[in-house]
Every structure is written in structure tokens, then in C-alpha cells.
Amino acid sequence: MGKHSRVRINCVALDTSIILACMQFKVDIFSEMQRLVGNKKLVIPEQVKKELEEIKKESEIKKRWVIKMLEVMDKYGVETVKVEAQNADSALLKLAERCIIATADKELRKEIKKIRGQVIYLKGKKILEIE
Question: Total structural domains in the chain?
Fold first, then answer.
């Protein structure tokens, strides 16, 4: 059952929930990531990008949020990655072996911790924290 030496973590994968939470509470996700993990590459699975596209249809304000966030993610070079998985959570769980996962989803956080992955979460609606 034991894993051998830890794989070197060189990226952070963003979940839809952390992106929306940071927009809602006006947390600069990119400067917070820089503070926490330096220049690690930021990625989103295709499934997360698809969820963001769906959220654009929910309301005018969410549409503006998502459009702005996609523009900013592009500016910061956030890479969309292909992961063979049914949904965003499954994709993020697969990525947890080689990426830190940034999420505001409590259940996903628990699942990632079970497999000894690292998680970045929003603390006190103000800053990102790593566990």
C-alpha cells in the first residue's frame, strides 16, 4: 500500500470552485499562488474549463466573472490539460499525484488528503492556504 518516494510536484491544478470563490471574495488567485508556491505552472483540466463554460449560462454576472477569469488565466499562462476522466473531480484526483490541487470543495479536499495529495484552499475568504 505504501507509496515510494513522493513524485516531484511541479504544478497546481485549479478547480472550478476555487476560481469562483476567489472571484466572489475578490481574492487575487494569481498573487496568492505566487506567494504560496512561487512559479509553479498553473493548469486546469478540460473538464474544469467545460464547467466554467456552463456557468457562463447561469447568469449575467457569472458570465462576466467567467469571461474575465478566462482572460486573466490566459494572461497568466494557465494551461488547459487533457485528463481521461468522467468529470472535473475525477480529473483533479488523477492530477493530485503530480499537482497540488486548488479547490474550495470540502469533499474533494477530503478525497485528495486520503491519497496523500496536497491541497490549496481559501481560508477566511481572504487568503489561500496550503495543506
Answer: 1
* CATH number of the CATH domain containing 65: 3.40.50.1010
User: pTM here?
Assistant: 0.90
Residues 95 and 48: their CA atoms lie apart, in Å, by 12
| Other Cβ atoms closer than 10 A to 61 | 9
Beta bridge mates, 117: none
Asked if residue 1 belongs to a domain, the reply is no
The reply to whether 5 falls in a domain is no
Q: How many CB atoms lie within 10 A of CB 23?
A: 18
Residue type, 42: L
End-to-end CA separation in angstroms for the chain: 22
What does the block give as the cell for 78? 494557465
Residue type, 107: E
Question: 2 lies in a domain?
Answer: no
Q: Which residue, among 95, 129, 124, has the nearest Cα to 112 in the 3D structure?
A: 95
Encode pLDDT of 32-90 as tens digits.
999 999 989 999 999 999 999 999 999 998 899 899 899 999 999 999 999 999 999 99
Distance CA 112, CA 25 (A): 24
